[in-house]
Automatic annotation (TrEMBL):
This is L-arabinose transport system permease protein AraP. It comes from Paenibacillus allorhizoplanae. The chain crosses the membrane at residues 15-37, 82-104, 111-131, 165-187, 219-239, 269-289. The gene is araP_2. It is found in: Cell membrane. PROSITE patterns: ABC_TM1. PANTHER family: ABC TRANSPORTER PERMEASE PROTEIN, INNER MEMBRANE ABC TRANSPORTER PERMEASE PROTEIN YCJO. Keywords: Cell membrane, Membrane, Transmembrane, Transmembrane helix, Transport. The keyword Membrane applies. It is a multi-pass membrane protein. InterPro entries: ABC_transporter_permease, MetI-like, MetI-like_sf. Belongs to the binding-protein-dependent transport system permease family.
């Protein structure tokens, strides 16, 4: 029979997770359930009555010629392009910066860690405005620099107006903004790799690439998978960069922009909720596939 001290210990442990549980219910689980319920209704903002329509909102998304179909698949195409273009750089550059940071003297690490992480504290709106000015066609710093060194002097690069330049601009802005977060995660993972393994590898004649391939990457593999999946999820949720920076039309009209247009321009909250639910399912499927492909049994 459990003693009073045992129940007291269990109660104390439960209280530690109570704030997270409340936040999870209030800001994640309940909104998801409520959003799914709305997706089954004809939920026009101007109508006082919201009749149940079942899966009609989902059928509209997969019916050619409907506004929901156009917005969903145009947005999904643009979103997938950004995921493919950005995620490899977010992972590889983040790991590269972490390796460079670890190679610095201990006195300089804290300084450069702060320098790299500062952009992550900037809001999405400020970040987008900064890089929109940087990539501006006529007076942007990038084009002025290219003209100064004699490249594209009389033919400015349409960074935010045409492909593939617009994708380059969006990826660069995202890298600058978020790379510090991935770098910090990788730095913490690298600090957990035993130093004696590196010393033994050096004695055996292993060079830097051999040590990275045979020691570093296997030890930080779980963190590498975590960063890959979280970077993919974050890239699927891109909104501020194309919305505030790009003037390339449907080419960079990502899915969240289509959902926003459906909800507040067309005032069809039910269809927008259905699109959001499908987007969430897509992210879950991609994340599971990534985890299955990149993980392995030890």
């Amino acid at each position: 029979m459990p003693t009073p001290s045992h129940w007291k210990s269990k109660l104390t442990s439960s209280l530690f997770i109570l704030p997270y549980l409340i936040a999870f219910l209030a800001f994640t689980l309940i909104p998801i359930i409520y959003g799914f319920i709305i997706s089954l209704k004809q939920y026009n903002l101007l109508d006082p009555v919201h009749p149940f329509v079942g899966l009609d909102n989902y059928r509209k998304i997969f019916t050619n010629g409907t506004q929901e179909n156009d917005l969903f698949f145009i947005g999904m195409k643009a979103t997938l392009k950004f995921v493919v273009f950005s995620v490899p750089f977010l992972v590889i550059v983040g790991l590269g910066f972490a390796l460079l940071l670890n190679a610095l003297p201990a006195k300089l690490r804290s300084f450069f860690r702060s320098i790299y992480f500062i952009p992550y504290a900037v809001s999405a709106t400020v970040m987008a405005v900064i890089w929109k000015r940087m990539f501006d066609v006529t007076g942007g710093f990038i084009n002025l620099l290219l003209a100064k060194v004699g490249i594209r002097e009389f033919d400015p690069v349409p960074w935010l107006l045409d492909t593939p330049f617009v994708w380059f601009a969006l990826v660069i802005a995202t890298l600058w903004w978020t790379i510090g977060f991935n770098m910090i995660i990788f730095v913490n993972a690298l600090n957990g790799v035993p130093e004696d393994l590196y010393e033994a590898a050096k004695i055996d004649g292993a060079n830097g690439w051999d040590r990275l391939k045979s020691i570093t990457l296997p030890f930080i593999r779980p963190v590498l998978i975590f960063v890959l999946i979280t970077s993919t999820i974050a890239s699927y949720n891109i909104f501020a960069q194309p919305n505030l920076m790009s003037n390339a039309g449907d080419e960079t009209k990502v899915l969240l922009m289509g959902i926003l247009q459906t909800a507040y321009t067309a005032r069809e909250i039910g269809s927008a909720s259905a699109m959001a639910i499908l987007m969430g399912l897509t992210i879950m499927i991609v994340s599971v596939i990534q985890f299955k492909v990149t993980s392995r049994k030890e």
